[in-house]
Amino acid sequence: QVQLVESGGGLVQPGGSLRLSCTASGFPLSSDVMSWVRQAPGKGLEWVSTFKSGGGSTSYADSVEGRFTISRDNSKGTVSLQMNSLKPEDTAVYYCVPGANRALLLGGPYDSWGQGTQVTVSP
């Protein structure tokens, strides 16, 4: 099974920004529905955002609405998550995943999700 690869995480101060990217081991992503989920230290998985092709529909968790933006670059076959005004509570491992089935997403992580990318927001 092709493994997703996330990148772009790092350590930032509160109020800072990061841009996460996702690709399928260097190959274009084939799913027209992609989501981001995250797992904070000692916490369960939390759905963050979903991008749906066919009008470019996007949706966000209340906790990130207005601060995060999900997008897709079809020419590169990647999906990104622009994160602005980061807060300490955004600290988590972020995973890029296909689909938007909530029960399935929160049942992860799965090997196909890859290692995720660590985002740490701290002074």
| Terminal residue distance | 39 Å
Q: How many helices does DSSP assign?
A: 1
Shape: globular
User: Helix coverage percent of residues?
Assistant: under 10%
Query: Strands of the largest sheet, in order across it?
Result: 2-10-9-4-5-6
Unreliable stretches: none
Structural class by helix and strand composition: mainly beta
- State which percent range the strand residues make up: 35-45%
Number of strand segments: 10
C-alpha Rg (nearest Å): 13 Å
- Order of SSEs: EEEEEEEEEHE
Mean pLDDT: 93
Give the biggest beta sheet.
6 strands, mixed
Which characteristics define this entry?
123 residues; mainly beta; 6-stranded mixed beta sheet; 4-stranded antiparallel beta sheet; 1 helix; globular
Task: Give your account of this protein's structure.
With about 120 residues, the chain is mainly beta. About 5% of the residues lie in helices and about 45% in strands. The chain has a six-stranded mixed sheet, with no helix packed on it. A four-stranded antiparallel sheet has the order 1-3-8-7, with no helix packed on it. Strand 7 and strand 8 form a beta hairpin. The longest helix is centred in the last third of the chain and has 4 residues. The N and C termini lie far apart (about 40 Å).
Short description:
The chain is mainly beta. The protein has one helix and ten strands.
